[in-house]
Amino acid sequence: MICNPGPLPFAICVVLALSCGGSPAAPAQALQVTSVASFNTDGGAFPMETTLAIRDQATWQHLWAQLNSTRIPAPALPSIDFTTEMLVVAAMGPKPTGGYQIAINGATEQGGTVTVSVTATSPGSCMVAQVLTSPVAVSKLPLRSGEVKFSIVRQVKNCD
User: Fold this and answer.
1) What is the pTM of this model?
2) Are 52 and 89 in contact (CB under 8 A)?
3) How many domains does the chain fold into?
């Protein structure tokens, strides 16, 4: 709204302009997040950094089989009730050494969009195992039908 001198006094024009801004966005609502699994696989499950949301049993079974393809026997598939829950997955992809970690720290929902907070940690100047790794974190949260975004904070952990 543009306030021009005219029939409305300036103060009324300002009040009208402020009221036209609409209501402020509702604050983000924290969602309950529970860790399901944390892996440091040999790199076969995800060839690159990956984030995804899983809302069905078939996809979950396929992912679990991939994550445990080199484990004999493979651990039992954790039970997820996809009528009320969904999974979020964060994977770093293959890394050349040990010392890499990924964690799902929480999630919020605002305006129908879920934002998942992730921390990806890389080793600084540390002695680490010389082995190919691929960190993966899987967590469950209440089922939501909207978009899922991932906010990844990258940090370096130096040894003391």
Assistant:
1) 0.81
2) yes
3) 1
